[in-house]
Amino acid sequence: MHALPASLTALLLAAFAGDALARSSDRNQPMDLDANHTDCAVGNDRGPCLFKGNVRIVQGTLRISAATADLRRGGGDIQKVFLTGAPVQMEQQLDNGEQVSARSSRVEYDLQSETVVFIGNATLSKPDGSVSGERIVYNMASGQIQAGSENSRVKVRFLPKNRQAKAD
In what residue span(s) does the Organic solvent tolerance-like N-terminal domain sit (predicted)? Predict the structure, then answer.
């Protein structure tokens, strides 16, 4: 079996991601975190804010569970979030009402560029299909997904509209 040319893979991923924008109103909701332990400087928005053990994050329809969360703040806002877990699990409702879910060993979320990078046995799923690989980069603003690395393969599954197809 031959590998798909990069241009065809990009076209398939663009088709999958076309409406993959997360619920836009979630970004304007408060972010609630709870964990077994935290180490966070109050009043200092430059240092890391660490959460460890059974971390749960909720922001609007976004739900995250992880082993650790490292929040980096600046200018009075959270700018980056680094999550690790076995695995990190995320789910969120899209603007069209569908659910998207993701799972990976590590997640790097840059709120300013609206980019989420899933690293290590990563899977991104929504009702019409899924993409999996060692690394998935998801731009929330554009819906663009880039996946893969030089030493791994990317798997993409498109489900028919009737959603009656059985998973293999």
Answer: 45-143
Q: Can you give the residue range of the structural domain that contains 79?
A: 6-158
DSSP state of 8: H
DSSP state of 6: H
pLDDT (tens digit per residue) in 74-125: 887 888 999 999 899 999 888 888 898 999 999 999 988 989 999 999 999 9
* Structural domain count, the chain: 1
d(CA 9, CA 133): 13
Residue 164 falls within a domain, yes or no? no
CATH of the domain at 134: 2.60.450.10
41 with 47: CB under 8 angstroms?
yes
Does a cis peptide bond (omega within 30 degrees of 0) precede residue 87? yes
Q: Are 22 and 94 in contact (CB under 8 A)?
A: yes
pTM of the model: 0.78
